[in-house]
Design brief:
It comes from Paenibacillus crassostreae. GO terms for molecular function: DNA binding. This is RecT protein. InterPro entries: RecT_fam. This protein is α+β, with helices and mostly antiparallel strands. It folds into three domains: 3-78 and 191-221, no CATH class; 90-184, no CATH class; 239-300, no CATH class. It has helices spanning 3-12, 22-30, 38-51, 79-87, 152-155, 160-165, 167-184, 239-253, 259-269, 281-304; strands spanning 15-17, 20-21, 60-67, 70-77, 92-101, 105-109, 114-118, 127-136, 142-147, 192-194, 207-210, 214-217. It has a three-stranded antiparallel sheet. Strand 11 (207-210) and strand 12 (214-217) form a beta hairpin. Helix 8 runs parallel beside helix 10 (281-304). The radius of gyration is 22 Å and the shape is globular. It starts with a helix and ends with a helix.
Length: 308
């Protein structure tokens, strides 16, 4: 390996912001955050670092679409991202949440936070609301109910298309956000930032390149041929995201807790996975089985150890 290649590898693997390396930033800029300006991308990454949310695990999304005055970025936090924030609280005790439909039987005691939700038919009718009960050690249960008329303004608002496409997921997410805010004080802000938005003015993203000498090149001064097509909306909670959450929890049992560690583990254990690409759902499920087997083996080895 030449000296220059060694320098490039060292720069790519060096932590640049939070736990993210230059390689992570390049991957995010060309995939999840594709179409963002340098300022928008910098703001997105600062949000990830500040909140501790991992975009590689679909805990937070960066959606870009063409606005009246240029590309607009909307940051969306997934349900599992909100849950990840709550799990950091030492008194976290879980939650239950669901949409409620016309033909369901539903009642809830707002004092005790005890819901009774019974689905009596597969022909449930349209969604009329949602609820969430957030539990916390040594604290009262917090129950929140949201009726469909309470979110009419959101359905007609700037993220209206996402609400129309994924109404059940979005109204449940809305209930979870409110319950977690009251129970844990978690404030989840999901705003839009245009290319001329004065609120989105952190230092622009800079891609570091290596020649004979290490130098910093400001990408914002170069021609930007980035594809500005709007990104496809993503449902707040999908099977892929649920598997991501299971992978994160399982890897924590093996002591793998950082984005760099998770990425290295995936590259090592997912066959044919190349750097800069995202694993498929099938590959994620296969990886989860590998992790579970490794955990079982680790526990078995621990049980076999005899005390001295």
């Amino acid at each position: 390996m030449t000296k220059t290649n060694t320098q490039i590898q060292a720069i790519n693997e060096e932590v640049v912001v939070g736990n993210f390396t230059q390689k992570h930033l390049d991957t995010l800029k060309s995939t999840i955050a594709k179409g963002t300006s340098n300022e928008q991308f910098s703001l997105f990454m600062q949000t990830c670092v500040r909140t501790g949310l991992d975009p590689f695990l679909n805990q937070i999304f960066c959606i870009v679409y063409n606005g009246k005055d240029g590309p607009v970025m909307s940051m969306q936090i997934a349900v599992e991202g909100i849950v990840a924030l709550a799990k950091k609280h030492e008194q976290y005790k879980g939650f239950i949440a669901s949409e409620v439909k016309e033909e369901d039987e539903f009642e809830i005691d707002m004092v005790t936070g005890e819901p009774k939700h019974r689905i009596v038919s597969m022909q449930r009718g349209k969604t009329v609301g949602a609820y969430c009960v957030a539990y916390r050690e040594n604290a009262p249960n917090i129950a929140v109910i949201i009726t469909s008329d309470q979110v009419d303004h959101l359905v007609k608002g700037r993220n209206g298309q996402m609400w129309k496409d994924y109404f059940d997921d979005m109204i449940v997410k809305h209930a979870i956000k409110r319950a977690f805010k009251r129970q844990y004080g978690i404030e989840v802000s999901e705003d839009e930032f245009g290319s001329n938005n004065q609120n989105s003015s952190p230092a622009p993203y800079e891609r570091r390149e290596v020649g004979p000498e290490v130098e910093v090149i400001d990408v914002s001064q170069q021609d930007d041929n980035t594809d500005q097509r709007p990104a496809e909306p993503i449902a707040p909670l999908t099977e892929s995201q649920r598997v991501n959450g299971q992978i994160t929890e399982a890897l924590e049992k093996l002591g793998v807790t950082t984005p760099d560690g998770r990425l290295s583990y995936m590259l090592k254990n997912i066959k044919d996975l190349k750097e800069g690409t995202m694993p498929t759902l099938g590959q994620k499920k296969g990886l989860l089985k590998i992790i579970e087997m490794e955990i079982q083996q680790k526990q078995s080895n621990s049980d076999d150890e005899l005390p001295l």
